[in-house]
Amino acid sequence: MVYFQISPVGFDCGLDKNQCENYPDYCRECVKIKLENFGLDLKNNIKFMIIDSEEKRIQMFQDLIWQKFLDVLNIKHILLMAKESGLALIDYPISGAGVNTHLLTGFIQANITFSESSNTTNDDGTKGTNHYFYEFQYETFNILLKNGQFIRICLVLDNKASDSLKILVTEFLSEYESKYFDKIGAHVRKGLMHFEDTIDFIIDTFNVKLVFPMILTHTLLPEELESIKKNPIQKAIFDFAKALLASKAFFFIINLIDEVQKIVNIDANKILYEVYQLIEKKIIIPTTIETAEDVVSNFQESRAVRIANNELISSIIATDDTINELKEKAKYMSEEEVKVYINLFLRKGETAEKGLAYKEAQKEYERALYLASGFDYTDEVGRISFIILELDKKIKELDLEYALKIAEKAEKRKDYIKAINFYKQVLDILRSVQDFNGNESRIKKLEKRISNLQKHL
């Protein structure tokens, strides 16, 4: 039998405190009875805390997420070592702190040997055994180390570890040895060193994604955008994220919080909470620097390569007579003239976009991109590419919304052929997006809907 310890668990009793005669004196007993009815074992150590309002519940999560963020910001390097040999199994740098792990492992082994032989205690009074932490200084860093049964974990930190981080380390060590018991056993018996596939578990446990480079989804649905607009903090976060991405391929949460705080005078933990909600909804997406740069690079290559070959960059302006005139002018333009024209096209595009003339706006932005790509203005290409991607999303959202409305109206009128035709257009739009970000379920529902409509024909 496998026994699961679930911590922490939240439970909504379903009653308002003003309507319950037993509140708050008998809450503990009442909740225990309800949870035991679900088959949960509550005979062991149980912590009980009443969160008697939605505001307190949100505050609790804000503080929890903020502490996770502070803890991961403090971590510079994560090192997993075989307990007996001291060999590094996982060497995972979180920042460019430049830690020499070969020297560090030797330093750790010497400190542990000294601590165990002299039976000394650490600065905080903790002893160096399997049940306690080692804490010591290494160069300018603080080292937090804990032994498990077969492995030891070492965190290289900027500052001393918080209590929450120590608890997390203890839980991680227990779960890691249990989850990868066979892999660790193979190392102990045969010296095998294949632990790279366990890094994702480390990333998830220590919330490392909170310090990853971030990008925005390219498939924001109308209802998601409407939800963001109704939340002033999320709207500020989203707008500033777009502004940061206009000049770079990615952004970091810490920079985003700083920018939002300059305008919105609220606590950083409240901003982070809303950022976290957008991450959960996959509107803000953690990525790697390489992946983020590849997104812009691939977008540029699909256009800039054709520019280099003197080909038109888009079918949007391919049939526009003015592009031939622009191509001829571009041959003799100075860099100053190019910049003037780029800004002119961008201003025209912004004006058209404000007037909801999206196709015209797209043409103007494409002209600006044509010049920026042809003259190898990398920063401008990245900025304009992002503007075009954002506009393309707007156009797709409008097309999707229009096709969906027509399809639903046709279905109500039992005009099944027209309904199927427009539902298929919706499918095409959804499938044209590179990253579905949750659209898979919508696609499956639409496919089923079309299939049911076809039965009427």
State the shape: globular
How would you classify the helix and strand content by structural class? alpha+beta
Q: Kindly provide the name of the CATH class of the largest domain.
A: Alpha Beta
- If you average the pLDDT, what whole number results? 78
Say how many strands there are: 7
How many independent structural domains?
5
- Discrete helix count: 18
Low-confidence stretches: 120-130, 299-313
Order of the strands making up the biggest sheet = 2-1-5-4-3
The CATH architecture of the largest domain can be given as 2-Layer Sandwich
Helix-strand sequence: HHEEHEEEHHHEHHHHEHHHHHHHH
Major sheet attributes: 5 strands, antiparallel
State the distance separating the first and last CA atoms: 55 Å
CATH topology of the largest domain, which one?
Answer: Beta-Lactamase
